[in-house]
Amino acid sequence: MGFLSDEERALLAPAETAAFAAPIPTQIVSSDEYLPPPQSAQQREVERRLKHLGAELAARHGLSRRRFFQTASGMATAFLAMNQVFGPLFEVSAAEAATPELADARAGGLSDQFIMDMHTHFLKDDTRINTFAEMRNAVGKAGWNKALAEKEQTKDDLKFDNYFKEVFLDSDTKVALISSAPSDVQQDWFLTNGQMAVARNEVNARLGARRMFSHFIITPGQPGWLEAIDEGIEVHKPDSWKGYTIGDNTHKDLSKYPWRLDDEKLMYPAYAKFVKSGIRNVCIHKGLFPPSAEKQFPNLRRYVDVSDVGKAAKDWPQLNFIIYHSGYRLGPPEAMMEAFDQTGRIEWVTDLAEVPHKYGVKNVYGDTGQIFAMTAVSQPRLAAAIMGQLVSGLGADHVVWGTDAVWTGAPQWQIEALRRLEIPEDMQRKYGMKPLGAADGPVKTAIFGGNSARLYHYNKSAELGGPNDRLPHMKAAYLEDGPAPSNLRYGYVMKG
């Protein structure tokens, strides 16, 4: 599945076996949506330093390097190595890396931070999307069920049980939204709309609190798609809508129904249904369409940028348009960084950030899913620039947290990266960007959970922590038993 050719796939290796299992990735990991760039010289240097520091500090504390990298000090060491190579972008000290007590105290002090990850995935049980299984075929399964510890990796690791472990137990995530991707081939949806609703209901019942939300995927142009919305409202009661303007993202070569948000004839009847239903958050996959994809699928180009967002948002102020991946174009990170340094623009993130000013709207939001992960590990200055532009253009109250987990593994490393990231002072001065501030300061607090809580009318004080809320007890038992985050990423890396 996906659009990579056999020749392109021959260039790739499974991330689980080929990539260094560091606390943060040391090279970009992709699904088969796009060809990942090779590990850069800077990333190789981060990996070299991290191996050396990890071995030295692990020995000092009587741990294996692998076990050390599963600790809070191991995570701090990763960001220390990043700073040594890319400059002081992440808040971390050598003392934190070397002193487990300091690292544990910091991690413990932030563990209750409210985080809503409104962009997550797992695969249905009968999926025939085999590329993910091919990625994971030689590593022992990492699950809280210790009887499965030596189990060979299979598609199960991208299914529900491992998803629950990595999102809710191995990270500080408190609430998650389960999403999917549609296909013109019905059996190749990641999850059906019904399966997402069932997963949400079962998780919330299991945990005794509303900790999972779910999408309803719309398929504009497909036969019966408007009637499906009516059924979805009645039967599945989704928390928000999601659409892919590219049409079929899994089979781009077969995509028959690409569409635009500002198509009045096609889309506006659906928007009217959304408003009437009271379900007013519309999540839209945009970007992640590199020049190589444009060459292969030039017919889809006009559907994947953000040029259709402004008019739709202006015409429908009753709706919230949440743009997944913030429209990030996708290209070689070094080239994207160079382009920003020369022009001050990031394709198509800058375009999205300019929508509120150009159209006079306040109902457009930018999501960080996957783009924060890939830029933070390849060009952290670019990650800082993206965050700075989104906050400056959309507002700190219009940027929402998403990780695209579990494709990128447990989301904790991404949480730690944003907690520690700061926009360099020279970038702040040149572009008028404001600091992101402390890990638990107002900007990051809003991005991590406050903005999504407002969008989804979620009162965390009323929803969480009651006598029936089982997740705190479940996580406490998991931590007491000795957590073992795998530090695995699930995707492809370029062969060395």
Polypeptide structure, described:
The protein is an alpha/beta fold and 496 residues long. The chain has two domains: 6-111 and 488-494, no CATH class; 116-463, Metal-dependent hydrolases (TIM Barrel). Helix content is 45%, strand content 8%. It contains 25 helices and ten strands. It has helices spanning 6-9, 15-18, 41-60, 65-68, 72-86, 94-98, 100-110, 131-135, 160-169, 193-207, 225-236, 264-277, 291-296, 301-304, 309-315, 333-343, 349-353, 355-359, 371-378, 380-394, 412-420, 425-431, 442-455, 460-463, 471-480, and strands spanning 12-14, 116-120, 175-178, 212-217, 240-244, 281-285, 320-324, 364-367, 399-400, 492-494. The strands form two sheets. Strands 2-3-4-5-6-7-8-9 form an eight-stranded parallel beta sheet. The chain has a two-stranded antiparallel sheet with strand order 1-10. Helix 3 (41-60) packs antiparallel against helix 5 (72-86), helix 11 (225-236) packs parallel to helix 12 (264-277) and helix 19 packs across helix 20 (380-394). The chain is globular and about 65 Å long. 51% of the residues are buried. Residues 127-155 have low confidence and may be disordered.
